[in-house]
Write a structure and sequence with these properties.
The protein is globular, with a radius of gyration of 25 Å. A six-stranded mixed β-sheet has the order 1-4-3-2-5-6. It has helices at 2-34, 47-55, 72-87, 106-116, 135-138, 168-178, and strands spanning 42-45, 61-67, 93-99, 122-126, 148-153, 158-162. By secondary structure, the protein is of the alpha/beta class. Helix 3 (72-87) links the parallel strand 2 and strand 3 (93-99).
Length: 180
Amino acid sequence: MQQHTYIFAAHVTYRMITRKLNLLLAALAFILISAPAFAQQVKVIKYKELEQIRNAPHDTLYVVNFWATWCKPCIKEMPYFEALTAQYKNQPVRVMLVSMDAAEDLEKRVKPFVQKRSLKSDVLLLDEVDANTWIDKLEPKWSGAIPATMVFNNKRKQYEFVEKELSQEELQSIILKYKP
């Protein structure tokens, strides 16, 4: 009789644990399905906001890359900028990826592109239809072609502009030249 009691008690305990575990797994699955996945934000800006960053008296080295989802050379060099973000994470170096895609492509092209690649750099979308109204103000030598990269530290009066695809070595060389 005592042996049957132990077997029955073990069976009841096993069923209770299994039931609680199933409830816990169901709750966890519900949370994971209903919670939005972490996604890098893409901030939509106008030229004035970009101009404020460019002219602010800071002692941070800004690395601003102009790119688009449809630009193959831009996509090719993007891992190099992401590597900078990781490499200089706790230093006064800030990488900003400025998308030149149309604002109406934010949801269907830019955000999925950023999510698929798990970009960690600051990603902005420049919402300006007519580049002729702002490019000369930002960089008079810029033809408007991308990729293009601007590196600056205003407090130290450091500035460099490159209008071409950069290799990882070229990008690192520029950063080492100006890094605080």
